[in-house]
Amino acid sequence: MKVNIYAVSEFENFSLEWNKLNQQTHQQAILTADFIQCLIQHFFIGTEQFVVVNKSNKIVFIGFFQRVGLGRWQTVMPSQAPLGLWLSSDGRIGEKLLASIATALPGVVLQLDLLQADSRYLTVEPNIQQLHYIETGNKPIPEHYDDFFKTIGKNLRQNCNKAYNRAERQNDSFSTQVLTGPDEIVEGVKQYGDIESASWKAELGTAISADNEQGKFYQDMMGQLAQRNAACVWYFLVSGQVAAVDLCVIHNGNLIILKTTFDEKFAQYSPALLLKMQMLKYYAEHPELKIINIEFYGKAMDWHKRLNSELRPIVHLSWQRSKLLQWVVSKLKHYKNNKPRQLQSE
């Protein structure tokens, strides 16, 4: 293996190779080169290392790393990236690959971590530590929406019907709207920010707004992806007022809901959930759009499970240079997974 280390500014020269690896593996919009370029622009600080690994004149691994402590490096993980910013040609991660990267990085590297790997595209050799991060889910678009609706739990069906009945009693009407043009998508991100800035997230300082770095990133990124029909914004409206918003990106039939929010004054209708139901219905009834799967890439919530979503783990991978360090990390992992509940709550 030959490992080359580049400045982050060199990424643009490898965008075709990056997209090729994404196409061979994940086929997700959040791992396309234009999405990554927007992350670089808004969240990178300039000290990151861009790593390219070649074998037999082919790129077999590509990714971004940063130093996080004495002898420790990990893949770069901006807060707005659902998955770690790295790709492996065949999804296989082994000791030889990571040892080669560790040797090429500056200084003595004792531990190398690959963060937030989608287990669906991953084959890990036994000597690489796997640490559970979250369980996520996806929902394939049903062929017939009415048949799908019959399969979900009785409580969810009743809740949906109650929301529509309540709206009728209160003379409210429900509708949805999907935005696809670059300009209207930017306005959709601003609408999302207006709603979230008025929510409980604003008190925590985590809300997207039109003027903060998160909001600027989503406006830039989704505006760029919309130019190649790879982004959309969904609205759920109550009597013409926007009650819920989903920010979505699309690639190869996979639609990812990146962010979702709702106006709390419409909470009685569960508009964010009703929006998901309407999205499933819309794509089921419009197969010509070729959306075959909805990805969530966040922590699986109860409503994901109630939609009969397919669940799988997102994991962190960890390699240590010495057997002793491997043993220590293994023991720490065992302790973390098995410590008494009383200690966990504390």
UniProtKB/TrEMBL annotation:
One Pfam family it belongs to: Acetyltransf_6
Residue runs in coiled coils: none
Domain BioF2-like acetyltransferase: from-to ranges: 155-286
Transmembrane segment boundaries:
none
Keywords in UniProt for this one? Transferase
Which Gene Ontology molecular-function terms are recorded?
transferase activity
Q: What is the protein name stated in its UniProt record?
A: GNAT family N-acetyltransferase
Q: What is the lineage of its organism?
A: Bacteria, Pseudomonadati, Pseudomonadota, Gammaproteobacteria, Chromatiales
